[in-house]
Amino acid sequence: xxxxxxxxxxxxxxxxxxxxxxxxxxxxxxxxxxxxxxxxxxxxxxxxxxxxxxxxxxxxxxxxxxxxxxxxxxxxxxxxxxxxxxxxxxxxxxxxxxxxxxxxxxxxxxxxxxxxxxxxxxxxxxxxxxxxxxxxxxxxxxxxxxxxxxxxxxxxxxxxxxxxxxxxxxxxxxxxxxxxxxxxxxxxxxxxxxxxxxxxxxxxxxxxxxxxxxxxxxxxxxxxxxxxxxxxxxxxxxxxxxxxxxxxxxxxxxxxxxxxxxxxxxxxxx
Amino acid sequence: xxxxxxxxxxxxxxxxxxxxxxxxxxxxxxxxxxxxxxxxxxxxxxxxxxxxxxxxxxxxxxxxxxxxxxx
Lengths: 270, 71
Hints:
The complex is a heterodimer. By secondary structure, chain A is of the alpha+beta class.
């Protein structure tokens, strides 16, 4: 695949240059395990080599084993809402395999608002999440909603036996799926429609125009519904998440390859 | 599943407060509108919540948010 390779910044070793962005993230998140550091160096290097780094406006590598490490946005590892640092609320279990919500009251606010933080959220966007728990139910894994609730960007790993996604619409677009394991990418590259990819393959292609911009932030592992509250808490462990501009099929495939290799380096791939 | 029962006043004290570095309390209501927090939060670094009573958790019915569904 074009662009996927070993960056000169890929590994830190004596005399080798270190990607300053990767190092900043490692330092902020307090990652001291050498294998985790190497995985982070790989992630940053591979994303840049594949010309994907700038398409991800925020991504959360979920590495380090604690809430205080997992919270950081790799693109801007500051401990502020404005830097899209995650706020983990309610019950979560953090470990070397990721961040696992409790399906009771655990969720996270990204503070990333599509309307405010993307150049054209209606016509170019993506959201992605890597799930390590197989569960079937009304568990909302990643979502941003407008206040009118007619424009939503959802990913359900598996609900009623189906993966479900919306992208600036509000129809329950579904496709049968055998489990909720792996990497989901919800991407729209223009007004004609959007695709849901699972593990690098397009499993859902929907022809629908965007309804409206979304003025509320993405949340992980539940939905924060205006006028209702936080609902649909998920039990699925999160090992990576991202948002940014739209990704075409090749980009989505390349991103999946990189994220899967990242998970493999951490010994937590599914 | 056992969760910890709060009074409304305790809920007000805890919501959005840290229970460990990087994570905050988020009390919710169960199907009987009791305020509760989870075991993960109680097992954090705030000591006084560990003394509160436990109850069996029963969730509120799940609302739908997609079109052609009820909310």
